[in-house]
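Case study 2.
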Amino acid sequence: MAWSTYYLVGLLVCWWTSGTAYLVAATLPPSTVLMSGVFVALIMGAFVQGLTPTIAAGRGTFLEVLMGLSYNRWAMEALTLSEYRHYQDNLRNVLIMLAKGIGLCGVDVLLVDDGLDAVSPQEALSFLRLQESFTFESCQPYISDAYMVLFGLGLGMRLVAFLCLRFAPRQQ
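Prediction:
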């Protein structure tokens, strides 16, 4: 994978984090800003990252919304899918099942899962259909979405911080 991918994701994570710092600093009392900023970064980066619990497990719940705000969830998806492209010729089946388990690239939505431990005929057929046509190049929109979400969240937090500073009553 090109170093520019890592650099872009790192830059976007810094953009998200600094936007969060602006928002925390604009909305909380000065005595609590430092600790609150650390807690927000820790919670959104370490606890709501999309691997445990997975993106697939969080679909359709409040956890999906919370994961949608996490920088690490989007950074993980962008980097993982970018890396998968290099291994798809040799490890396609393994990567498809990993993507299904985590919920990357919408694979968990594309495959049938009846909830049983044993593989049913419907599950096997849906996997074979997906395997025939699926490439990780088709995940490029998910990578682009991850970049845009990271940028948008950083920008959105900056705008909310600006509005809080602009229109909040000031103590003199």
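The longest helix spans residues 140-167.
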